[in-house]
Known about the structure:
The protein is α+β, with helices and mostly antiparallel strands. 25% of the residues lie in helices and 24% in strands. It has a single domain, classed as CATH 2.40.240.50.
Amino acid sequence: MPALFHPRLKSFAALASALMLAACGSMIPPGAPGQRPVPSAPATPPKPATPRPPLTPAPAPAPDQTGPGPAVAAGLTPGPAIDTVLPASSARMGLALRAFQLSCPSLLRRRDQSGLTGNADWQTACAAAASWSEANAREFFRRYFEAVQVGDGKAFATGYYEPEIAGCRNRAPGCETPIYRKPGDLIEVDLGLFSESLKGRRIRGKVQGSSFVPYDDRAAITSGALAGRGLELGYAVDPVELFFLEVQGSGRVRLPDGSIMRIGYAGQNGRDYTGIGRLMRDRGLIQIGSMQDIMGWLRANPVEGRAIMNENKSYVFFQELTGPGPLGALGLPVTPEVTVAADPEFVPLGAPVLLSLDRAEPNGLWIAQDTGGAIKGSNRFDTFWGAGERARGLAGGMSARGSALILLPIGTYARLTAGH
């Protein structure tokens, strides 16, 4: 994600729509013939579990353009009593509490782009969470939170996971596509420092002479704009696989000796993300089908494929992860089946999110710890499933609709709507 801040950049419905719908998660199929194999996707995605009917969102409220941020402007509705919608205690509930505990320092320090909360709002819940037992996690969320619907509450969720590709630390024949670190001349500017109307907006670029200009796009970078600067973290065997790992935001590089180098999101060049799957479909190059079809076409048509990949001007830089990971937009390790990527303009990063969808696997409590280039809007989410075959299958086939509630500290809704 990510970012994986991306991550970022993360997902898809029924495999091929990954690049059409999301930038946070996507599936990496096996390597091209003759390459060191990477774990293959299951022949068929796991059969979706049958969920209970999802909750029906409340009627959408009127937008409030006078609110303190995008989420309030979209309109807020109080959700059902928290005790009636929280699922029963489970392993995921305990993991959600642990993830919330990790997020608390950020909740107490970072500015909430959504305008829903201030740092002080989280103090009571975070203080209690510090010593709360995971075995009684449901009681923690029941006691300290209330449910709030943002906008129409109609949720759409996809999935992402941590892929594995073939690569090497040092350039070698057949392993020559650079995996770049974040360049030192890539600068991120907080526009809110210059204008109140631009609060929460950031741009990335570089200084050129006396001007601040956009950073090099994908075409320039893949053509060698960063070569010779010592930024190579390693090399990938297949540029197509690396492209999709960028979309994922983090992953594992299997080295020739069988060891693993884990890499995570370190930055992005500031250019807009473009999903190439939609471009290929619109041009009649592929039918809506499997991700293998997309990658197969790119490999079979390397010149045209490179040009199409370059139409996505976004480029992701990586760092090697030697501790827990992968890392999400908060710079914290993301938790399989608990971390969800969300749009920070509508969901406070670190806040619990309750999903009620038409697929059973993603139903329940998640913690918003990541973002994605195409995860935009008040009720758009990307669920993180970890690594391995199960994660690959779930993320690849994840496309679920239903409703979403944001859990905010008790009293937040009343404060936000006072006088309305």
